[in-house]
Specification:
The structure holds two protein chains of two kinds. Chain A is an alpha/beta fold. Chain A folds into two domains: 54 residues; 192 residues, 3-Layer(aba) Sandwich (Rossmann fold), CATH 3.40.50. Chain A contains twelve helices and nine strands. In chain A, strands 5-4-6-7-3-8-9 form a seven-stranded mixed sheet, sandwiched between helices. In chain A, strands 1-2 form a two-stranded antiparallel ribbon. In chain A, helix 9 packs parallel to helix 10 and helix 10 packs antiparallel against helix 12. Chain B is mostly helical. Chain B has two domains: 99 residues, Rna Polymerase Sigma Factor, Chain: A (Orthogonal Bundle), CATH 1.10.1740.10; 111 residues, Orthogonal Bundle (Arc Repressor Mutant, subunit A), CATH 1.10.10.10. Chain B has nine helices and no strands. At the A-B interface, helix 1, helix 2, helix 4, helix 5 and helix 9 of A face helix 1, helix 2, helix 3, helix 4 and helix 5 of B.
């Protein structure tokens, strides 16, 4: 029978799924309840649907397959690859420059000395984009233009990558605290979205209009290492030895990066100074 | 707030606290916490990966990759969603990428297009026509009442087989939503977040999937 509120059986069956999930607006739920009070056919339909949904849940409970070997392998992965493990991490991330591999959390100073090496930094981002990673580019205008042109040559149109949230450019024309925060936010947002790794490429703007002063850039470099150590990210900062002063190469390039990339070799850097010590010295150094 | 909603929000608070302590434990390197997480989600992750990738070995690689993503990403995880939603989202991202790489067309990005065509939950010939003078849209062939022992039916091996073949017949979008929601026990919100689709569309896909599974099971439901 069609109830006084006028819901036909044929309409009720279209609402049963949301009814079961308690997802109907109150008025509509009321109309369904009203109808069900008097309709045996719809009650039977609802009961069948409830039983089917319970049976689907039973599939999960009865299907737990135990696989001890697999579990052991995963635990091993946790032991060796998690950030809490202070042992040298497995270098599993292809840098896209020469054949070098880095580990998640690495902060690398890339010492380049000709145009070819400079342009290779686009390859660092391209390798990530090809692996569905997210890339962050922090550079001065001239460097950015060359890197983006390089991506185009790799068949990765920058505009398209930006539109799909795979490539972000972060402006260097802001205070270093804001800069560091923006990079951190980009990394965390990507990880939240289920992205495997975030690459950050720095072509820092020393003496570029409205960029932070040298001392500020140096303090940024010093703080980046600890900021990304536990994150699934690789940060590569290009130091073009043709144009940079000896002081910037020494303090920025060597003392702030635990690793350096020079020609094809990624090396532990003995000149690296822990951030706290570096910053203390920097502030004493007038 | 209805009683059900109040219970739900209470449960959500407990879940949120659990999440916090699990995340902290993982960050500290607590292997026991990680092992429990694997026990809890690994079978689900394998089943969902296989929805995207037929080859079991490759699907298992995707699952292992997902765990690596969890391990390496735990310090960056912002808790904007639940831990469970996050893990499924990592899995689904990796699975789509891998499926595309294996040369399989990925039918999933256009979820919203999949809900356009209207389908009836129950064949229209089982109701009075809509222009019937006194009983429009009323059952003419209603489903029979359940018998006395639905619990036995619920747990029977035969039921599992019928369900599995009914699930296998579903269009892919409906199958994915049904499995996440009803088999894996994700909330509707978790399904939306994991798949990146709107709630309305999730509900439509789920409704159609459930209706089809019920219809396929109806002949076996008479005797329970």
């Amino acid at each position: 029978m069609v109830s006084s509120t006028g819901m036909p059986c044929q309409e009720l069956v279209e609402r049963v799924s949301s009814y079961l999930d308690d997802a109907l607006p109150p008025a509509e739920r009321g109309r369904c309840d009203e109808h069900l009070r008097t309709c045996a056919g719809c009650c039977a339909y609802l009961a069948q649907m409830e039983l089917v949904v319970s049976a689907l849940g039973e599939l999960r409970r009865s299907e737990g397959e135990e696989n001890a070997a697999e579990k052991a392998r995963l635990l091993d992965l946790f032991r060796t690859r998690a950030p809490h493990n202070r042992a040298p991490r497995e270098r599993s991330v292809p840098l896209g420059i020469a054949d070098a591999f880095a580990a998640p959390g690495d902060h690398i100073g890339y010492l380049c000395e000709d145009d070819q090496e400079f342009d290779a930094t686009a390859g660092f981002l391209a390798a990530g984009l090809e692996r569905d990673e997210v890339c962050v580019l922090l550079g001065h205008d001239a460097a950015n233009a060359r890197v983006l042109a390089g991506l185009e040559r790799h068949g990765l149109p920058p505009y398209d990558m930006q539109r799909r949230d795979r490539l972000h450019t972060v402006s260097g024309q802001q205070p270093t605290d804001a800069l560091l925060r923006e990079i951190d936010v980009r990394i965390r947002a990507a990880v939240d979205d289920g992205v495997p790794m975030v690459r950050v490429l720095g072509h820092l703007g020393w003496e570029q209009p409205r960029w932070p002063a040298e001392r500020e850039i140096l303090s940024l470099e010093a703080r980046v290492t600890d900021a990304v150590r536990n994150l699934p990210s690789v940060v590569l900062c290009a130091y073009d030895v043709r144009w940079l002063s000896g002081r910037r190469l020494l303090l920025g390039g060597l003392e702030c990066h635990p690793l350096t990339l020079r020609r094809a070799a990624l090396r532990h850097n003995e000149h690296y100074v822990a951030a706290e010590q570096f910053l203390a010295r920097l502030s004493a150094d007038v | 707030m209805t009683e059900a909603a109040a219970n739900n929000s209470g449960a959500a608070q407990v879940a949120a606290l659990d999440n916090l302590s699990v995340i902290d434990a993982l960050r500290r390197g607590d292997e026991g916490a990680f092992a429990r997480l694997v026990d809890q989600y690994h079978p689900s992750l394998r089943r969902v990966a296989r929805l995207y990738i037929a080859n079991r070995a490759i699907a298992d690689e995707v699952v292992q990759d997902t765990w690596l993503g969890v391990i390496q990403g735990i310090w960056a995880f912002e808790r904007r969603s639940s831990l469970k939603t996050w893990i499924f989202r990592i899995l689904i991202n990796r699975a789509k990428t891998r499926a595309a790489r294996e040369g399989r067309s990925v039918p999933f990005p256009r979820f919203d297009a999949a809900v356009e065509a209207a389908e009836a939950a129950v064949a229209p010939h089982r109701f009075q026509p809509v222009d019937h003078p006194t009983e429009p849209g009323r059952w003419t062939h209603p489903p029979p009442d359940l018998g006395a022992s639905p619990e036995r039916w619920l747990l029977a091996q035969e039921t599992r087989q019928h369900l599995q073949s009914a699930i296998a017949e579903l269009p892919e979008h409906q199958r994915l939503v049904l499995i996440l929601r009803d088999v894996e026990g994700c909330s509707t919100e978790e399904v939306c977040n994991a798949l990146g689709i709107q709630e309305t569309n999730t509900r439509v896909l789920l409704h159609r999937a459930r209706a089809k599974v019920r219809a396929a099971l109806e002949p076996y439901l008479k005797r329970v």
